[in-house]
Structures are given as C-alpha cells and as structure tokens.
Design brief:
The protein has 312 residues and is mostly helical. The chain has helices at 3-13, 26-45, 47-51, 60-85, 91-99, 117-137, 143-171, 175-194, 206-211, 219-237, 262-272, 276-289, 291-311, and strands at 247-249, 254-256. The protein is globular and about 70 Å long. Bound molecules: fe (ii) ion (FE2) (2 copies).
C-alpha cells in the first residue's frame, strides 16, 4: 500500500476525521461530492412543498413555526454546499448540476402537499426519516460533513417535534380534522420508507460507503429502526399506518411490514414523480430571479476591496 493510502486507512481505523487537505482516494472524494451535494439539493428543494403552505398556515403561531423550519432548511443547504466546496467543487457548478437535471435530490420532495395536515406529516415522517439517516452521518469519516451534521440534527429534531405536535392537535380535533390527519399519514407513509433508499441487496453505493465510514448503518437497518419508532408513535395519535402487514414480531424484536412499491420509487427517481418538473422549474426560476442580487453583492464586494486597496 502506498504511503498516503496507509495514512488514510489508518485514520479511518482510528476514527480520526479526514480533513480537506488530507490525501484521499479519488473515489472517496467523488462519493462524498455526490452525497453531500445531493443532500444540499434535498434541503433546498425540500423548502418548496412547504413554502406552498406558508401563506395558508391556520394561525400566526403555525406560520411562524413553518417559516422558521423553512429557513432552517435553507441554512442546512448552505452548510452542505460549503462542505462540498471543501472537496474541490464550486457551489456554482453544483447548483448547475441540479438545475440541468444531472444531480439528484431526495425523491420525497416530488410529492405534492395537498392539505395542511401534509405539513405535519412531513415534519413527523419526512424529517423523522431524515434524522435516522443524519444521526448516523454525525459520525461519518469526513470532518466538514460530520461537523455540519451535528448542528443540522439539532434543528431536525425540532422539525420532527413540531410536525408531530401539529398532527396531535388535528388528531384531537373535529371528524374532518381527524380524517385529514389520517389521509396525510396514508399518503406520506410509503414515500417516507423509500427515503432510506433501495434494499441493501440492490444498493449500488453501500458497500464502499460502509468501508469508508461514510455510512455506518445500511438502508434496511435504518428503515427498520424508523418503522419501529413510528409504529409506536402513531398509537399516541390514535391513527393508523396504511400497512395491513404491519405487526410486532416478538422473535425478531422488530415490526414486520408489507412490501414497498419499488416500481413507484424508481419512477420518481427517474423524473416521473407527481412534481419533478414543477420542482426543478421553481428552482431554476428562483435562481434566475436572484441573479441580480448575486451580481449586486459581488459588485459591492469588489468596490469595497478597491476602496480599501487605494486607501492602503
Ligand atoms: Fe434539513
Ligand atoms: Fe428538516
């Protein structure tokens, strides 16, 4: 083994973080760039389905909470774009890859938010699934990514709490509110399970990611943990999960669950989900409309540094 390579694997072995200036295998760098930028895109695109409800939140309190959450997601995107930049890609090229359709983001955000209860279900189930993944990522081997995740996780747990609490209020409300709550859970449950990615047997990137300590648990392990947690929490809501096969298995010490529709998963990944086109369109439009702000900020920064230089 080459000298640099053995230092790299020695660090992994001893749980020492890999830092931007350290030598790393090309494939490790590539995997991280792909994963961190996909993650950043998911944070930013994830604001879109929720943004749909900011103007229609049922009270001032709910509106303030939702605004704060959407702003947190923007912040998560920014930490992550910055973390990706430490690996040698520019933010501009990363965002360009999103807008051209070359880069992916989490498919969950290609589903529509039809009612107010969807906002609660997203907080509880979507942010809940995200936390399962992200807690593990706080210990990933790449320093800038791991450190960004620590702060993100703190904010994500607030997101899940507010979602659950919002559903709890609906679940104790009128018959219409209870029906709306159940309907949102029914529509978000399966897509939330798909957030953990394909089954371990079909996951292309998993083995190397585990070896490099980017991932610490497999897709199926994380999915099972999530199901075990939600199957208990749904009882507090007095609601049900839309899976007739969901059942506690004493022997395994886990909940058994029904078959996931992987065909739907791959359709959405390939761009044929209910809102794929709409989401990308909204992103491109926001980018275009923000162009003058970026240009003005740059012109201002240049002017300031010129003034400083001539004073010196
Ligand atoms: Fe987030
Ligand atoms: Fe979140």
């Amino acid at each position: 083994m080459e000298h640099f390579e053995s230092i790299f694997y020695g660090k992994l072995e001893n749980e020492v973080k890999i830092e931007p200036r350290d030598w790393m295998p090309d494939a490790y760098r590539k995997t991280l760039i792909r994963q961190i930028s996909q993650h950043a895109h998911s944070e930013i695109v994830g604001m879109l389905p929720e943004g749909n409800w900011i103007t229609r939140a049922p009270s001032l309190k709910r509106k303030a909470v939702l605004l704060a959450k959407a702003q947190d997601e923007a912040g998560h995107g920014l930490y992550l774009y910055a973390a990706a930049e430490t690996l040698g890609v520019t933010r501009e090229s990363t965002i360009e890859d999103l807008h051209s359709g070359k880069a992916k983001y989490s498919s969950i955000f290609n589903y529509p938010t039809l009612t107010w209860a969807d906002i609660g279900a997203i907080g509880w189930l979507v942010d809940g699934a995200a936390i399962m993944n992200q807690v593990m990522l706080c210990r990933n081997s790449y320093g800038p990514y791991a450190r960004a995740m620590v702060r993100i996780c703190k904010e994500e747990s607030f997101h899940q709490r507010q979602g659950f609490e919002s559903l709890l209020v609906l679940s104790r409300g009128s018959a219409e509110q209870r029906a709306m709550c159940q309907d949102a859970i029914d529509r978000w449950w399966w897509p939330a399970l798909m957030m953990f990615g394909p089954r371990d047997s079909e996951s292309t990137h998993s083995d190397l990611s585990m070896k490099w300590k980017i991932k610490r648990m497999s897709n199926d392990e994380l999915r099972q943990r999530f199901i075990d947690m939600i199957a208990e929490q749904v009882k507090v809501l007095n609601m049900t999960l839309p899976d007739p096969d969901l059942k506690w298995n004493e022997e395994r010490g886990h909940y058994d669950f029904g078959a996931i529709d992987w065909d739907e998963f791959w359709q959405v990944v390939k761009g044929n989900g209910p809102c794929n086109r709409e989401r990308l369109e909204a992103r491109r439009k926001a980018h275009e409309e923000g162009r003058w702000v970026r240009e003005a900020a740059l012109a201002h920064a240049n002017k300031k540094s010129m003034v400083k230089a001539s004073a010196a």
